Amino acid sequence: MARIPYPDPATLAPEARALRESLPQLNIFKMISGSGPSFLPFMALVNAYLNDGLLDTELRELVILRVGHLCGSAYEQHQHRRVSRMIGMSEARIDAAAGALPSPHLNDTENAVLAFTDDQVANVKADAKLFAAAHAALGDAAMQELVIIIGIYLLVCRYLETFEIELEEKDIETSGLDEIRRSMKNNG
After folding, report:
1. Quick one: which of 28, 67, 102, 144 has the most CB atoms within 10 Å?
2. What is residue 175's predicted lDDT score, i.e. its pLDDT?
């Protein structure tokens, strides 16, 4: 059970209520909708890399899975394993996100990016060699997006774990990423 009650949608500002109602009915969205003025900008930031992101979709999911694994966030791992399956990733590649590196199930870029992710999560400022390898594969703008995504999911994992947000009683079977994209385009 979550540490604080999920907000009553009737108590939310009209824009926040509309956005919450348009999103998949995941507990994280239910809870974060009550974060006041942070909710809409946070969701707009998430939408930016989902809709217009520079990272390959599978690479982005591998990074999110890796951060969830490193943070020990069961909710994050569960939801993004589901998203990874929805976009067609194999179980071997999904499992590799939580395994030893380099992984034979990942390409050179993916292995370099996950090694960078590990070091950044552990040490804040990643090692110069790991930075150089990831940067060589991604370039300037995508490297910046990578660091932002790692930071966002560190925040998300801390949020999930601090508020003890529980898994939904049943999985939401909708294509959650598509719903987030649509709702954000319609609401902001």
Report:
1. 67
2. 47
| Residue 18 structure tokens | 């509309």
**Best CATH choice for the domain 14-187 from the list 3.10.590.10, 1.10.275.10, 1.20.1290.10, 3.40.30.10:** 1.20.1290.10
Tell me what pLDDT residue 185 has.
55
Q: What is the pLDDT of residues 59-92, one digit of tens each?
A: 999 999 999 999 999 999 999 999 999 999 999 9
- The string of DSSP codes covering 47-91 is HHHHHH-SS-HHHHHHHHHHHHHHHT-HHHHHHHHHHHHHTT--H
Average pLDDT in the chain: 92
Read off the tokens for 32.
Answer: 């974060």
Q: What is the pLDDT of residue 69?
A: 98
Dihedral (Cα; 65, 130, 56, 32), 10-degree rounding? 40
Residue 55: how many CA atoms within 13 Å on its side-chain side?
A: 26
* Per-domain boundaries in the chain: 14-187
Q: Contact, 10 vs 33, CB < 8 A?
A: no
Ramachandran class of 124: left when φ > 0, alpha when ψ lies in -120 to 50, beta otherwise: left
